[in-house]
Each structure stands twice: as C-alpha cells, then as structure tokens.
C-alpha cells in the first residue's frame, strides 16, 4: 500500500505531543514545525541552520547582517536554541525508532526571495549573496542531517526542501523593496544549479521538493536531483500534471497532497479519487500508484484546531488503503 506522511507544519505549541503522535499515525514520520511558537516558523528554522551567515529578525522578516557566524544575532541564537531543544525531544521520544524519518527546510530560492540583504531588498537581487546563502544553507543542512542521524541512529532520513516561492522567482514576479517593480527572473539552469548544490550536500539522504503552486516547476526539481516532488493535487493545472507524469515515469516519487488543509474534510474515497482519476486520464501504470506517498495538500498550521489537524492526518492511511485497492483494479 502507499506510504503516508505530512508536509511539516502543525498548529499549537507542544512539540513533544505532536512528535509522539506523528510516530504513530503516518508511515513516514516527520519532524513537526510549529509556527505558533516564536522562531518556530519554517524561515526561522532554516535561518537557524545557516553556516557562517549572521541574520537578525526585523519587523519585515529575517535580514542578513553582514556579520560572520560567531556574531549571530540574539534572534538567530534563539532560533538555534529552539531547534536544539526540539532535537533533544526528538532523540528522547524516538529512542529505538527504526525506519524513515523526514526533516524539512526552506529551499535556497524561497529563502533568497524571503530574507533581506543588510541594506534592504531581497537576497534574490544579488547574485553573489544568493550563492552565499545557498552555500550556507547547504553546509548547515549537511550538519543538521548528521546530527539527526546521530540522535536517531535507526532513522533512514529524507530531506524535504520547501520551495513555494520558486514559481515567482522563475516568473520574475517577486516584488522589489519599493514595491514598484519586480526582481529579474531566474532562468531554469540557474535555478537548477543552486537547488542541486543543496541536494548534493545532504546526499545520500533522499531529497524531495515541496511546492503547492498550480504549476510547480517539476522539471527544475528533477534536473536538480530531487528524488521526489510534493504537490497539492487540488490546484494543479493540466500542464503540471503532464510534467508530473513524465517525472513519475522517470522514477521520481510523487508525494500527492490529496487531503485538503482547510474546509470540509472528504471521506477516504473522495480523497483517493482526486488522484486516481488523474492517474487514469494520464494513462500511467496503475502499479505505480502503490509507490505514491499520500499527504495533505500543504502544511496544517492553519487548521482550525489541533483536533482538526489530527482528523486530516488520520485520513491519510485510510486514503492510502483506497489508492492501493484502486491500483489493483
């Protein structure tokens, strides 16, 4: 039967409670992100990983300070402290665990489109700065992967890079600081290069790239070396499905977001058929459906309550069972 996992973010502030729960409910447990906590959002978590790059938190968001790593700001030290506390908890709760374990980080392009330069505007505006940022992220993730392996030695690690901002980067749609113009678009080969730098740094861990846009740049992800792509089934265009079909046929694992993150919760048959119908229309091998990983459409931090988020996560294994049955019809 297909495996199941979550995208990463969840509501509330209890890391211990969510970690225990996740280890029981999905077949690919993931380290939860709890953005309700100070420094618990995905950008803060990724800024905490940066090596030899100092940053501080401004009203508009994270900003590089131009300093070296030993002079990290109080904000960056607090983000790192929270991450270390969470890893301590993970080590305790997952003691003796063996099997897959997923960790998440913002990808280099979304980080470059979010974090600001010391004198304003996004890192995206400066070729050298965005290369430095990607390098700092790559080295930081490399060390993070090694530390998680040390703390949970039985885990087979997967690394998820969140790239919700990459479609806008490629389209030249990221606003400048003034708001009057847009940053220049990045071409496909350039996008592949920086993404590949991060993916290569964490090898041999399997890397998947998550992007819940209507037209995620699947070709960029696969050319960069991603072993999997995570998408939101409900929003994909026909052109996007065609790219996904090519990727699946080439051996890329599809992480299919079939359970909505908000609104009415479907039953398992409805959730499964949103994927199965497209699969059949594309003429893909039904047996490959068993290799799909079933996920929510995106993170669940915006769920109306912790119980609502749990209901959506508990729908995943039921949906996976239906998808597996449809694969055999």
CATH architecture: Alpha-Beta Barrel
Overall helicity? 40-55%
* Separation of the first and last Cα atoms: 13 Å
Number of strands: 9
Order of helices and strands: EHHEEHEHHEHHEHEHEHEH
Total of domains: 1
Q: What is the CATH class designation?
A: Alpha Beta
Summarize it:
The chain is of the alpha/beta class and 329 residues long.
Quickly list its features.
329 residues; alpha/beta; TIM Barrel; seven-stranded parallel β-sheet; two-stranded antiparallel sheet; 11 helices; 14% strand
Structural description of this entry:
- The structure is a single chain.
- The protein has 329 residues and is of the alpha/beta class.
- The chain has a single domain, classed as TIM Barrel (Alpha-Beta Barrel).
- Helices cover 44% and strands 14% of the residues.
- It is built from eleven helices and nine strands.
- The strands form two sheets. A seven-stranded parallel sheet has the order 1-9-8-7-6-5-4. A two-stranded antiparallel sheet has the order 2-3.
- Strand 8, helix 10 and strand 9 form a beta-alpha-beta unit.
- Helix 2 packs across helix 3, helix 2 packs across helix 5 and helix 5 runs parallel beside helix 7.
- 47% of the residues are buried.
- The mean pLDDT is 94.
